[in-house]
Write a structure and sequence with these properties.
The complex is a heterotrimer of chains A (296), B (346) and C (137). Chain A has helices at 13-28, 49-58, 76-89, 137-145, 150-163, 266-274; strands at 34-35, 64-69, 92-93, 102-106, 119-123, 174-176, 180-182, 201-206, 211-215, 221-223, 250-255, 258-263. Chain A is α/β, with parallel strands linked by helices and 296 residues long. In chain A, strands 1-9-8-5-4-2-3 form a 7-stranded mixed β-sheet. Chain A is globular, with a radius of gyration of 19 Å. Among the domains of chain B are: 18-80; 94-116 and 152-168 and 181-313, no CATH class. In chain B, 40% of the residues lie in helices and 15% in strands. Chain B has helices at residues 2-6, 9-24, 29-38, 40-50, 55-64, 69-80, 155-161, 189-198, 201-213, 278-291, 302-308, 311-320, 326-337; strands at 52-53, 92-93, 98-103, 114-115, 222-236, 243-258, 267-274. In chain B, helix 5 packs across helix 6. Chain B starts with a helix and ends in a 9-residue tail after the last helix. By secondary structure, chain C is an alpha+beta fold. In chain C, strands 1-2-3 form a 3-stranded antiparallel β-sheet. In chain C, helix 1 (3-10) packs across helix 4 (102-128) and helix 2 (15-29) packs across helix 3. Chain C starts with a helix and ends in a 5-residue tail after the last strand. Classes of the chains: A alpha/beta (296), B alpha+beta (346), C alpha+beta (137). Chains B and C meet through strand 1, helix 5, strand 2, strand 3 and strand 4 of B and helix 1, strand 1, strand 2, strand 3 and helix 4 of C. Strand 2 of chain B pairs parallel with strand 1 of chain C.
Amino acid sequence: MPRLGYSYAFLDPGAKRELRRSLLKAVALPGYQVAYASREMPIARGWGTGALQVTLSLVGPEDVVKVIDQGADDSVNAANLRRFIASMSGARTTWDTLEATLIQSRHRIPEERLRPHQILILQVPIPEPLRHVEPSEPRARELHALADYSALWVGLFEETRRFRRSLKGAAYPVMVHGRYVMDPSPIPRWDVPKLHQAPHLTLLAAGREKRLYAVPPHTEVRPLAFQDVPFQVERVRARCRRTGVGHLFLNAIPGEGGLEHELSDTSVLEKLRAGRALGETYYDLEGRFYRDDVPV
Amino acid sequence: MSYVTARGGEEAIRAAEALYRSLLGRLTPAFHEQLEARLPYLLDRLMGEGGVWAPRLAALALAQTGGDLYEGVLLLRAYRTTLPRLSPALALSREELCLLRRISAAFKAIPEGQVLGPTLDYSQRLLRLEALYRAEAPPPPPEAARPAPERYPSVSGWLRRKGLLQAPREAAEGLPDLTTEPLRFPAPRPLALQALARADTGGLLALGYSGMRAYNAHYHPTVSELGLGYAEVRLPHPVRGGAFAIGEVRLSFAEVVAPAQPGEPYRLGFAATLGWNEVKVIAAALLELEMQREEPHPARSQEFVLLHTDPVEASGFALHYKLPHYVTFLSNLLAHQGQPEEVEDA
Amino acid sequence: MDDLEVLSWLTRAEARALRALARRLRPQLGAARLLRRRVGLALLPYQAEGTRFVLGEALVSEVWLRLPRHRVEGYGAVLGEDLGKAQALALLDAALAAGVGRGEILALAEGVRQGWQAARARLLRQVEATRLEVETL
């Protein structure tokens, strides 16, 4: 049962309508940052309030909601958000990626492949991929309008010349449908290829910065890279200390004898530990990506 | 190891909140009443930054957070998003304020004079240590034979009639509202004034002070008028037509003037906020004045000031750094350090 | 004092006094049907320097009701979260419209006005004592 005394799913109908309209605009213009009013939520600003507003504007009583933080369902902030969404909407919650209809995530895309009926909502701290080369918002907006991304290309070129690679780890900039450069949120590079031609809808929301953007299903999403220095994902040569799996994204954990590792994705970790079958994953047991038109 | 222990679910969250609340003790209506009566300047700061006049709720917010101002402002802002909008009140106007304090630094004699009102300005800031041991009632303030006027003519209006001040800038149509639309730049003046009214006192002070002290201190602006007072809130009566008063709010405003070009009239910077908060409106009015310049110092540009002084956004983002970042940290580490032992060549 | 002025003074009355008077008049008013009873926000526009902008919002309790017996409606609103006070005010507003208890309501408003004005005048005399006397040459 949703909580009494508040609007269904907390947001009042006016706020929901504005959010949904902005989301439609975002879907119609893949990668374009739509400005919206962004209400204050009863959790700290900058802790996922944007994605929370999107989740609450989409959730219905039939939905199944999964919330993860850095891949983990049991992370404290994820637990807090999940508790809030459930109490305000009456929706069921889950840790299982395959069972969820709405997945709110901070900085990870699940390892199991998302399907067309699922919506991924990513929390975004800094939506503007040009921010570090152009701190002024009006000027950055102008550069997007002109599709002038030369400052990013020059930066990438300089890094490549000096270090033979990009120094960008998480939040690697991507070109969406050949038009807008987009910050995919601070997901690791490991997750970036999952956005390309994905069958599911990804919504990205920055509450503090008041911007929404989207990657609709079957959209071209290409990391910025030069032909002769291809984009690379992180490759950790370790195995999960609990499951022995080595082909998925692992967290490093300081242990007795140096670094130990553990699966970042709790849905996968729980399934493997319980001996349950995994869904199809983006990377196979040899670490090969499921599509061959994407450099990893 | 901290990341490992930071995981761990709903029981820990509940226990942490329970511990926090138990250390603060009971919330009682009597305590909230006391806060409201005895700490009005603290409440005013909270309500000004929260952008909502609600003294009892502000007192509750303070009590509930043990006096953590940023948490308190967040509580007020989060609560206000759940409330419906009623009819707007009639516009409060400068001419109709009942001022208790009204001073000008520009002229010794201004129409209707300088009235200090309740202030510590010229007092000696000594702790009243005797009150540590026994109650101390304030002495009754002296009373003049006749009451002060409730309303004062605006000093800027007077300066304009003397040709000393530029005409007010063109007013925008309609009433844009930051709580229903995002701030885009260049922001129209009403949105900038609203953002300043809700801004963090400390943030405005730091940026304003940087301009006063050194950067861009090419001239010395003057406070032409500073006012603290009451504004009567009037709502339309939906049955009878007309409007009626439903109570009063405290508010403060400041106007500062500075020379433009030699021989030209002065320019004016303005700010107002809910509650009595002098340092905030003076800093904000100075920043408003600076923002109008062709090329303000970066820390006085509209975008820089308004985007970085929202108390809820700034504090929320600063605090988010304590959230787990282990995926991003590892990803950035691998990108930066290249190929440590754990990483195989791709 | 016109009726809107009466209401303006009544909003400054003690909630207890308003509720007591509303209760006394209740038998003559008959049943009331609530049309609206809610706490919300009133936008506070501020007009200065040729600009109108949103200074903030005020928390307001409002009640709108109808008295079927007298075929009149009443409206009450007060700053703050006291819906009981707003409802008493709405009943008194409806009573004024229905011509019920007019004398008593006016007397209450007049009492509030006198008390409030006396307190404000005293405060302003104290404020006047802080005036900086400057010589004008």
